[in-house]
Amino acid sequence: MIMGLPEKLRRRWDILLPCLLFAYREVPQKGVGFSPFELLFEHPVRGPLTLVKEGWEQPLKAPKQDIVDYVLGLRSRMAEYMKKASKNLQASQELQKQWHDQKAVLVQYQPGQKVWVLEPVAPRALQDKWSGPHTIVEKKGEVTYLVDLGTARSPLRVLHVNRLKPYYDRADLTLLMVTDEGQEEDSDPLPDLFSSTEQDALVEGVVLADCLTAEQKDHCINLLDQFSELFSTVPGTTSWCEHTIDTGDSLPVKSKIYRQPDHVRDCIKQEVQKMLELGVVEHSESPWASPVVLVPKPHSKDGKKEMRFCVDYRGLNLVTKTDAHPIPRADELIDTLASAKYLSTFDLTAGYWQIKLSEDAKPKTAFSTIGGHYQFTVMPFGLKNAPATFQRLVNTVLQGLEAFSAAYLDDIAVFSSSWDDHLVHLWKVLEALQKAGLTIKASKCQIGQGKVVYLGHLVGGEQIAPLQGKIQTIIDWVPPTTQTQVRAFLGLTGYYRRFIKNYGSIAAPLNDLTSKKMPKKVLWTANCQKAFEELKQAMCSAPVLKSPCYSKKFYVQTDASELGVGAVLSQLNSEGQDQPVAFISRRLTPREKRWSAIEREAFAVVWALKKLRPYLFGTHFIVQTDHKPLLWLKQMKGENPKLLSWSISLQGMDYTVEYRPGSSHSNADGLSRYFHLDNEDSSVHG
Fold it and tell me: Is domain 470-673 classified as CATH 3.40.50.300?
């Protein structure tokens, strides 16, 4: 309004403001057809223009009226003004409504539906934001709803539909994802039934211990021949247990289907057809649908890139209630096996697929492809409670045989103190497996061993020894040649300096090499070598390196550099200090070095958790990283197939990702950086 004044008068706007407002109030309003003054005083106001006009013309003398006539005339004019104003306002509102309704759509909500609510931002009442989700309680009018806001002050509020919009649960956007990178052999969670050899189904495929005599080997072969039907490349079907999926009142989790390349369609069609022939899947009409992910097989035939698909059940797992069936304590099982003189281990053929799904659970495992909609009839890989169900099965099968058998999920072991007893024990365990309708993969069985690797430890012969791999990274650490490599080593050892007596004195020669005055290519002396060896020895012995305590929480610290990846498995001691259990590291291949930073960091986590699986599986643990984007690793979605594939491969593990600043992450950082730039062929065992 002030800008509407003539330019010469704008400087005097404060003086002219009453005149400006007077002029504004005598202009008729478009909606009602009258000016504010006319509606207030019920007669036209004599403004400046009216006074000028009266000065030019001969003013008309109004006839004199008594008070009664004036009041009656005023009332008549008031009624006439209100009648005309109401009529004009109604016409104006109808015109505005027609204009606004041209693109308007009536939105309706149902009780219990989740919605976003547009609310003012406190303390800025003129700013709004969408909050929620909130729940619709009931419909109050044509365009009003009673909404549960969940606040203490006003939990229930009636809101107009314009302040609401639908809330959609986060769902997977793709139904198919093809990964372009292979996986390590020990990190592949999927059963490879279709590439099994005949040897896997033959008793001759069982590995007999070299230390056995010819007579003992004959005893083994005769025993195994009695249970030849146990050994098969086809999963058995047990009636002793079935898997259920309790999702409560949750709505079905479903994903949209996207177009797929022709070669991918053929691959999926072949895999589904094979599973149909095995009876693993069947056609479905389920409202549930989880996305399919294609993963390369670790070893392809004839150099060809073969694909195997799995289903991403992370959405289903989010709404599944947890099965609290306990997983055995690994340390107790290891102690039990340690005193044995003879040990045998067995591996079931695709163990999960030998457990049937309940009728209610089958539709929830459904997945869609271009060729149709399917659901599993057996327990698939990747379900949240699959480990608990599998452990319940093996506990039931081996019930009464605990004195000479143990099972940690799919790791079944038989142990005895004499050979004659071992044959009897083997017969009882194999008989129990046969009664349960289970099958065994022959090539994964070992009979009559003196020592076996079980849950990350070498056990047997009255001994328990950690695998050398957990300290091999430190043992293989060669003397550094540059300041960067010295700092990497000191970063690792310095992180645990509180456990190393006189750390400052021992590390002094190495610290001197990192001075700005010293050359970047270090001059390695005898004192440096002595300090280097002392620190390596201290890192590989108590009190720095501790034995794992399975009743305490594990922490996995991971990091990646341009050269390699490293990780530290640790636990907190009685004083709340971080103390290492194992060190592992790995050099990146030339292809892996070209990955982006987040891909290298994610690979460090995935690789470390696969390597440390014997310590971690079946328990909740913490993953600590200095790369913030990895906080969303478990919910990883999008168009990066590598990250999605890695995230899915960990869906059976119970972990939480925590961010830790780089300044507090020097232990894992040092392990990832110690690889020598001039020694590409050196190998580090972890």
Answer: no
What tokens were used for 229? 């039907």
Residue 123 has a CB neighbour count (10 Å cut-off) of: 6
Separation between Cα atoms, residue 227 and residue 196, nearest integer Å = 20
Cα–Cα distances in angstroms (integers) from residue 273 to residues 281, 357, 373, 502, in the given order: 9, 20, 13, 66
Q: Tell me: the pLDDT tens digits for 359-407? A: 999 999 999 887 889 999 999 988 989 999 999 999 999 999 999 999 9
Q: Which residues pair with 654 in a beta bridge?
A: 620
Identify which of 475, 492, 471, 479 has the alpha carbon closest to the alpha carbon of residue 529. 479
- Give the containing element (helix H, strand E) for 448: strand 446-449
**CB hemisphere CA count around 518 (13 angstroms):** 17
Peptide bond into 123 cis (omega under 30): yes
pLDDT digits (tens, 9 = 90+) for 513-526: 988 888 888 889 99
Alpha-carbon gap, residue 564 to 485, rounded angstroms: 13
pTM confidence score:
0.54
Determine which of 138-147, 383-392, 568-577 has the lowest per-residue pLDDT on average.
568-577
Contact 480, 563 (CB under 8 A): no
Class of the CATH domain delimited by 176-466 = alpha beta
Neighbours of 561 (CB within 10 A): 21
- The residue ranges of every structural domain in the chain are 28-100, 114-166, 176-466, 470-673
372-377: which pairs have CB atoms within 8 A and are 24 or more residues apart?
A: 372/283, 373/283, 373/284, 373/285, 373/286, 373/289, 374/272, 374/276, 374/281, 374/282, 374/283, 374/284, 375/281, 375/282, 375/283, 375/284, 375/286, 376/280, 376/281, 377/279, 377/280, 377/281, 377/282
CB 386 within 8 A of CB 379: yes
Closest C-alpha to 349, from 442, 428, 426 = 442
Beta bridge mates, 565: 560, 586
